[in-house]
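Question (not urgent): is this output format expected?
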Amino acid sequence: MTYRAHGSSFVVRRSSFVVHGEQRTTINDQRATKQAFSLIELIISIAILSMGLLGAMRVFPVGLRASQRSEKSSRATIAAQRIIESLKLKRWEDLAEGETTSEEDGFDVTTRITQPQLDGVIDPARVKTLDVTVQWTQDGRPRHLAFLTYVRRPSS
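Got this back:
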């Protein structure tokens, strides 16, 4: 709006007046309305954000199950290693051939001691096979890990 007063002109960019304690603007500020978000834009952005969050939330249970499987596998490996090391500490005469089953830390552990049939070994009677199998059930499925090592009779 342009006003002329006493031969000079001036431009009113925004004018306001007070009515009963309220300030009212006579000219709409179009820049302020262009910067605001409409309701439909907010709804669309919330819908996109929620779809992304739902997708991310579906990944967490898969990762948790994988972590639990990994933990069980690590614990089974430690149990088998403990048994193998305890058998290695035994005297040669105490390593009787055969199979035993026990429970170790919630796992079913089968230990087999056998005389291996090895070709090319100079004295196969001085070697024994220690075969340790660790079994457990996880997520309704049977799981197992098998470990095999050889022990040699010390020289006399």
